[in-house]
Amino acid sequence: MSKFVCITCGVQYPEQKEEPEYCPICLEERQYVHPDGQQWTTHKDMVGGGVFRNEIKQVEKGLYSITTAPSFGIGQTSYLVLGKEYNVLWDCITYLDEATIEQIDALGGVGAIALSHPHYYSRQLDWAEAFKAPIYIHADDADWVMEPGDAIQLWEGEVYSLQPGVTLHRLGGHFKGGAVLHWEHGLEGDGVLLSGDIIQVVQDTNWVSFMYSYPNLIPLPAEIVRHMVDRIEGKRFTRLYNAFHKTVRKDADAVVQRSADRYIQALEGELFST
């Protein structure tokens, strides 16, 4: 019996005798099945192979990034927020070894895990078990949980406070339950937004964008994008980090709003003539 991990997206499935026939996460248009077909591994094989390691780096006072090298699955970054009451792990990565656990424990451990959307659920239950922490995901994405467990706490509505100054906001868009984390006390009180790819930092980091499917370039309707940014309008965050270690370094709250305006103008044929 093994818990198989999809190599393309990094999501783990419950223990079973044989590899699953397919990964529902990858079979859907917001992800993709690799051209060589569905492929599986196990975390035991990943650790035993000695190929992977996690890199933990401080990116702000009280904020650490966690990435796997070489890149695995989607290649997302997880973040550890050092909260005033307890630390919060934002999004998960697949690879987790003893060295990673020891480094995070030295930073105060993890008191809660929060996820932006299903593409980053990875091995969330194993992270929760390692740190004895609950997992918070939005109830609208409950059907995308491939490995259920008691640690998973479903939250509802538009806003959920994990602790004073650390708040989850459901924006939807990429996924119906797509969420971002607002760290009010980050950056010496100027605020930080951790967006996964619910809000995506683009190549010109003075802008962000929004998509239904990133790998397949399917845009979101204008009214959905407006609804997303309206939900965080008025929230102060000078800096924004996405899931791929790309950053809007200043005036991020204003950048999100003007990027939404540009996106909507493009969809409605008002931005350019071609």
Which tags fit this structure?
globular; six-stranded mixed β-sheet; Metallo-beta-lactamase, Chain A; 6 helices; alpha+beta; seven-stranded mixed β-sheet; 274 residues
Give an overview of the whole structure:
This protein is α+β, with helices and mostly antiparallel strands and 274 residues long. It has one domain: Metallo-beta-lactamase, Chain A, CATH 3.60.15.10. Helices cover 19% and strands 25% of the residues. The strands form four sheets. A seven-stranded mixed β-sheet has the order 3-4-5-6-7-8-9, covered by helices on one side. Helix 5 packs antiparallel against helix 6. The chain is globular and about 55 Å long. The protein starts with a strand and ends in a 7-residue tail after the last helix.
Gist of the model:
With 274 residues, the protein is an alpha+beta fold.
**Pattern of helices and strands:** EHEHEEEEHEHEEEEEEEEHEEH
Total count of strands: 17
Number of helices: 6
Largest sheet: 7 strands, mixed
Mean of residue pLDDT? 97
Major β-sheet strand ordering: 3-4-5-6-7-8-9
Q: Helix- and strand-based class?
A: alpha+beta
How many domains, as an integer?
1
Low-confidence stretches: none
CATH architecture: 4-Layer Sandwich
CATH class: Alpha Beta
Q: What's the multimeric state? A: single chain
CATH superfamily: Ribonuclease Z/Hydroxyacylglutathione hydrolase-like
Cα Rg = 18 Å
CATH topology title = Metallo-beta-lactamase, Chain A
% residues in beta strands: 15-25%
Label the overall shape.
Answer: globular
Amino- and carboxy-terminal Cα gap? 56 Å
- The helix content, as a percent range, equals 10-25%
